[in-house]
Amino acid sequence: LTAMMEESRLTCFQRRYLMDCVKRGDTLPLQCHPTCSKKAAAAAPAFTARLCQPSRLSAKPHLRPAKLCQAGDAYTREKFKPCARRDLEKEKQRLQNILATGKDEVEDNVEQEPAETKEEKTPEPERFEELVNEIQERKEFLADMEALGQGNKYQNIILTEISQKMREMEIIDKRRSEETRELMTKDFPAGNK
């Protein structure tokens, strides 16, 4: 203990105070100021104990009254706005047809299918042109990147995308040729194929 006190460079007053604590069997203080008396040293732990205690809550609660809570927008509900999820007029016509004829009207469904196939046929030429434009854009991008010295970084990616576009163009071309063959065979008699 004396060697530790010498190494920590305690003053004579601090050494005496620590030795008195050891002789009495008391616990050693956490802090020992160089010029403090016993009373001042006893006051310091009381200060640290006060810091460790939790803050006392006031007896008066800090709650808002119910009237203030209800006056705000917290308790107001959004008004329900119904909206039709289906066309009621079509439903009425369908029900009338079922009651009148005993069956659902199928003619509307048959008429819709050819319209859908016409829509599918018309986008193919547009899609083919879009694919040609996309391939051209990718070629230009690759040329720009090669001019900037970044061609190696993007070359594999761009070439893969171009090959995918070419594959899609081939599929569209096959469909077109099959459709033209079917039209041609309908126009000519079966013996002149």
Set out the fold topology.
Blueprint: H1 2-7, H2 12-24, H3 38-52, H4 66-71, H5 88-101, H6 107-121, H7 123-148, H8 151-187
How would you portray this structure in words?
This is EVG1 protein. Residues 101-126 are annotated as: Disordered. InterPro entries: UPF0193. This protein is mainly alpha-helical and 193 residues long. The protein has a domain at 125-187. The protein contains eight helices and no strands. Helix 7 (123-148) runs antiparallel to helix 8 (151-187). The longest helix is centred in the C-terminal third of the chain and has 37 residues, at 151-187. The radius of gyration is 46 Å and the shape is elongated.
**Helix and strand run:** HHHHHHHH
The CA-CA distance between the termini, in Å, is: 117 Å
Structural class comes to mainly alpha
Using DSSP, what is the number of strands? 0
Enumerate how many helices there are, as a single number.
8
Q: Rough shape? A: elongated
Largest sheet: none
Strand % is: under 5%
Uncertain parts: 40-49
Radius of gyration, CA atoms, in whole angstroms? 46 Å
Mean pLDDT: 76
Helix content: 55-70%
Organism: Bucco capensis (collared puffbird)
Pfam family, one: UPF0193
Biased composition (Acidic residues): 105-114
Biased composition (Basic and acidic residues): 115-126
Task: Briefly summarize what is shown.
The protein is mainly alpha-helical and 193 residues long. It has helices spanning 2-7, 12-24, 38-52, 66-71, 88-101, 107-121, 123-148, 151-187.
Characteristic key phrases:
UPF0193, 8 helices, 68% helix, 193 residues
